Amino acid sequence: MARCRTTMGDTAMHLSATRGLRRTSLALGAALASTLLCATVSGAAPLGASGLADPGHVASARAQRACPVVYFDLGETLVHTADDGSVGYLPGAAAYLRALREHHITIGLITNVPPSWGATDAERAARLKKEVDATWRDSTPFAWGDFGDRILTPRTEAERKPAPALWRRAMARSGSCRLVYEAETAQEVQVAAEQGFVPYQIGQPHRPEFLPVGLVALLGRLPR
Prior knowledge:
This protein is an alpha/beta fold. The protein is built from 8 helices and 7 strands, in the order αααβββαβαβαβαβα.
């Protein structure tokens, strides 16, 4: 376990220091591989005196497994705006959101909108829904209900991404849950990583379009 912790620590330090797109992708791959290895080792329940798994540890592990939260950017991550102004799901996005829902994985949005759209996140989110729904072209409606009140938007121009404010707000409300951020831009992914999120840049060659649901669930077993 000492070697496992060292590997994850070294990977996190390397990822924080990375700036180039290629180096970011390599560091992320190492981080995910290290996470899988360490989660497999640390997730094994210790045996009690009877030779069976300790019930307290099993209950704790079950609680941890319910705790990943995946935040997304919206435009060009989950939805695409066509040349005619209409909006629809990006390929694979609707199925991915459905798979997360089926695995009871909590999701949220971290997206830029004009601060003038409202005085609160709820007001700005309501305006965002109205704007998107007015130009929606898919037969399947956008899954607004899956996001609940976890639609975080800038309160001021200074909070607009890539400023770290929105990621920090998401982190502050997450408790001990492991947070993931998925977006199409390298800069946003990098800032999210620096704030403690597990980052994933979508749309990259030779990688899944989105972070696999099974891996998201596994990440949720790790303490933040």
